[in-house]
# Entry
Amino acid sequence: MTSHTQPETYVITFHVLPEQVGRFLALLDPVLDAMRHEQTFVRYTLHVDPERSNVFQLHETWTDRADVLKVQLNRSYRAAFHENIDALLVEPRHIAIWTVARSA
# Structure
């Protein structure tokens, strides 16, 4: 994959087992805190469904897809999250990639 000049947002939806929400957040929080310091990082937003407190959507915006795939996903601070996430979910997470069409 080639690098992109326009930032891309990775939209990741998690349907967490209700009894595992605390563990999910405990594993995710250190990742969010650490990735903020990466050179190609732009921003993140973690959303929770107001009607289903176990459904989360994470928007991670980065400037370089190749860096995300080859470097960022393999950072040591992500290891515990990646090793444990599948056991915390009702169904596999959904990942989509979006680019900005317009913003204010």
